[in-house]
Amino acid sequence: MPVPLAAALVRSAIEAATRALGGGDPSIGADVLATLRHLLACPSLRDVAIKVSRLKSLATCAIEAAPLSSSRFSADNAAAAVLRALQEPGVEVSTAGLLEDCTTPLTEALRLSFPGTAQVLLDAGADVNGLSKDGFQWPLSAAGWAGSDACMAWLLEHGASLTLTDVRCRTIAHVLPLSAATRSFNCPAAAVGGFYSRWFPRVIAAEPGLLEARDGQGRAPLMSAAAAGSEVCVAALLELGADLAAVNAAGCSALAAACNANSLPSCGSSSRRAQPAQRRCRRGRRKLAQLRMQRWWQLCCPSGAAASALPAAGGSDEVTAPTGWASCVRCWLRACGRRWTLSGARCLLHVRLGW
To answer: How far apart are CA 317 and CA 330, in angstroms?
Structure first.
């Protein structure tokens, strides 16, 4: 049999076996595994399977074929059973293939929240701190992206490092806000918020240095959360004592990042923590809006030079700002839905009633 045809046969057999096992019918499980073992017992097909897996892991193929339409527990058991069947004839299941740059079998199992499959891979020699070849993915980050309590706990129990960083120097504390922003589109807000409110305190308690750890662009986790628009992560990090006044390599604060991302909820969380007196203000919505403007301006311009250009709360709606800060002001206005105009060296902020 030609090698390309044999390789396609082996791969399709593994995918079919995983789907059949994950279907939930126990009566066919033994027959499916027996058929797969019989196929891999053929010397020529066994050699093809071993060589194919070195290029693109058959373990990853089996994990990706697990039917998520059934229960996740059944899909996990199906993938784990197929991986055990692959190990018997000597097929490598713990490492990525030469053509796989962005994933490994372990990160793929954790991305799909398959702790049983992850245990099989760990027993086969997988590294709980192993980075993908491109340097962007590692097991703990995959569990964070999946939002899986079981996988996060399993990794920490088996020695996963919280201080591991990717090629961009991002830690797990930088990855969690990004995953929160992505998962918020597909999951209920309560479910998403619960995972991150539980795991941020645990991660920071175990490694306090992660609270102000900087990535390759000088961003702390709070800045990443604000830029991603993750209100739940911003709130969790502020509760843990993250420095709101810290800036990245470009001089941007977390509040400026939230404004630039057009994330009004995150901007509001940062503003409330920056100046708690605003919440107790009862002198009208105009004054509250201008107090928030003043505080934002002070955060973006620590020298205070630009803040002196702002009027006192309750004063005129028209504010003169230096031209150099026009782009930052524009971001703030875009986030808050305000009108803006530029005229020469003057920036006029028209702050309406209603925040």
So the answer is: 16
- Give yes or no for a contact between 226 and 261, defined as CB atoms under 8 angstroms apart: yes
| Alpha-carbon span 96 to 121, nearest angstrom | 11
Question: For the segment 79-125, what is each residue's pLDDT rounded down to a tens digit?
Answer: 999 999 999 999 999 999 999 999 999 999 999 999 999 999 999 99
What is each CA distance from 244 to 10, 12, 169, 295, in whole angstroms?
55, 53, 21, 12
Q: Measure the CA–CA gap between 100 and 228, rounded to whole angstroms.
A: 28
Q: What's this model's pTM, rounded to 2 decimal places?
A: 0.73
Confidence of residue 77 (pLDDT cuts 50, 70, 90): very high
* CA 332/CA 159 separation, integer angstroms: 43
DSSP codes, 152-209:
HHHHHHTT--SS---TT---HHHHHHHHHHHHTTTS-HHHHHHHHHHHHHHHHHH-GG
pLDDT in tens, 317-348: 433 333 333 444 444 444 444 433 333 323 33
Structural tokens at position 221: 């986790």
Tell me the C-alpha distance between 43 and 215, whole Å. 50
Task: At 164, give phi and psi (nearest 5°).
Answer: -65, 140
Residue showing tokens 């991603």: 228
| Contact indicator for 66, 78 with CB cutoff of 8 Å | yes
Q: Please compute the mean of the pLDDT values over residues 151-180 and round it to a whole number.
A: 94
Q: Write a three-state SS string for 118-148.
A: HHHHHHCCCCCCCCCCCCCCCHHHHHHHHCC
Q: Which residue has the higher pLDDT, 60 or 307?
A: 60
DSSP H or E stretch at residue 266: helix 264-274
Alpha-carbon distance of 210 to 242, in angstroms, equals: 10
Domain ranges of the chain: 296-350
